[in-house]
Write a structure and sequence with these properties.
Structural class: mainly alpha
Distance between the termini: 16 Å
Largest sheet: none
Radius of gyration: 15 Å
Number of helices: 2
Oligomer: single chain
Helix content: over 70%
Number of strands: 0
């Protein structure tokens, strides 16, 4: 049960982080401070980072606690 709560919390934290980044990138794109290519690159890079973070955080917690 503890592991399930840890996984859900980790994915929730990562999705909130990703949502905030996407919102900031879209705002910068609308203000024409960012090109479409850079917006796509930043969004896809942060998506990969967010997925990796969601997978690694529970492992680190269980490994060192």
């Amino acid at each position: 049960m503890e592991i399930l709560i840890l996984l859900i919390g980790s994915f929730l934290l990562s999705s909130l982080m990703l949502g905030t980044i996407i919102k900031a990138v879209l705002t910068a794109y609308r203000k024409q401070q960012l090109s479409m290519a850079k917006a796509i690159l930043i969004t896809s890079g942060m998506t990969v980072f967010s997925i990796l973070l969601a997978g690694v955080l529970p492992y680190v917690y269980l490994r060192f606690l």
